[in-house]
Each structure stands twice: as C-alpha cells, then as structure tokens.
Amino acid sequence: MSKHPPLGLSAAIARWAARASLAILTACGPTGAPAVGFGVAGPVGQETGPTRERIHKVPLVDREGQAHLLHTRICRPPGEAPARVAVIAHGSPAIAADRPTYRPSSCEGEAARWFLARGYLVVFGLRRGFGETGGPFAEAVGESCVAERYVASARESARDLDALVVYATGLPYAKPNGAIVVGQSAGGWAALGYNSMPHPKVAAMVSMAGGRGGRVNNQPNRNCRADQLAQAAGKLGETATTPMVWVYTENDSFFAPQIASDLHFRFTQAGGQAVLHRLGPFGADGHGLFNGRGGPAIWGPILEPYLRSRGAL
Is the pTM of this model over 0.90? Predict the structure, then answer.
C-alpha cells in the first residue's frame, strides 16, 4: 500500500494547509495584542504615565465583512497580577458633526481613577463613526425613530463593545473572564443591546443615563419618539440575561425621569433584570453625572455593592 495519499487528497490537504496558514497569519497581532476572530489588531502605542496607558487599535469585522480598528485607550491599575476588565462605553453627541472630534477618555479622569483604584483594567474604546476610529456611523437610528431601529442601533453598538471585551480579556495582564461594561448615554443603550446578546466574558453591566434619541436638534427635553424607545427597551429585555444597574438623575436634559421609568418598566416587564436608581439633580445637567466632577462620590456607592454581588469586584 502506498505511503502517499492519492493525488486528489494531497491537493485537498495542501489547500487546507494554505487556509490554515492564512488563518494563523491573520490571527497574529502585534506583541501583547490578541487577535479577535479573523480581524488583525493594529499597532500598540508606547506605554506612558503612572497608569501605563497605551493606545490600541482593536479589530472588528462588521456584518458585511469589512474590517475596522477601534481607537482605544487602555489604562492599567497598579501591580502585575491580571486585572479584571472594565469597558467604559461613551455616549453620542446631540450634534452629529461633533462625532469626529471624540477622543478616548483620560486615564486621569475621576471615573477612570475610581475603577483603577479598585483594580480594574480600564478600556476606553471609540465605536465606529467616532474620532480616530472613523468609518461609517454604524448605530444610526434615522429620522423615523421606530422601535426596530432603536433595537438595531443597540445591537450594532454592542458589536463594538464585544470586540473591546474580547480583545481586552485576551491581553496577558487581564483576567480572561468576569469583565464589566459601564455605558453612559448611548453607551448605556449599547450595554442594553449587549445584554440582549451572548456575552460570556461579562459578569456585570451598568447603564448611566442610557438611551438614544435625546435632545433632538440639541434642544433639551426634546426626544425622538420616546414611546418607541421604551418599546425597544422591552424588546431588548426579552433576551437580556445579566442583572443590571441603571442610574438617572432628575435634571437629565436627554432622558427625563419619566422616560427612565418607562424604559425600566418595559425592560423588566419583558423579562430583563435591572435596578433603577433615580437620583436628584446633578449640576446644570444631570446627564453628565458619570463623567462629571464629583460624580464617582455619588454613583460609586451604588455601583460598588452591585459589582460585589456579581462577583466582579
């Protein structure tokens, strides 16, 4: 019996080997930068400052198979032990022309320092359509503001969050599981979308003033079909699996207290689990509580017991 496979089989093996080699080459990112799916990570910036921060280019492949690199700042806590990942999801400006001006938040900000002090590896990634990430704006709702578009926006944003979670938990100085996601405004809405989809590496999710369609034409308390937003929250709640914490304020010019209550009612009525905290006014506009001066002193005591209850602190 011949020791060599038939010619047809040899050709098949050769084709498989070629594909495997290509997959391996595609999966190999730069040193310290894990591969995500078939995306290739971009270059990693120099380590700087006391938080050893670096700029990373996190790979993402969209529904059409197009590759993107999410411009991301990652801040490390003290010590060398693997740290739990905290992905912080930014909002979206009321004026669309401001999206290209977005930058990842600073490692020196109060919110970042709160998480770093508790041992988290803090990840600030810009989603598609924002800042140096660039590319098409993937989470547009459109002028109709119907529930289906709000749901699609949440889940498309969640694609970016998932890319950030998978990338960061693959870093050599990060824990591979038990990550948390904290989203502000549109980032909070993205967290709802992510909760409605598989997220095996995430243990806790927080929505800070979460929603979409607020301040239409940059006018305070003018919302694009808040009733449809609530309906969308119900749809997302149907498949949400992780208990959440939601935080809103009395003087939020994007999402007034009644809107927050309506979103919570529809989400939990559909099966989602969330504790709603409706706080008093904060500054000139409570929508900025999460990143505002003195904000962690207010939301920190709410998040800390929740994160501990989820085994994420």
Answer: no
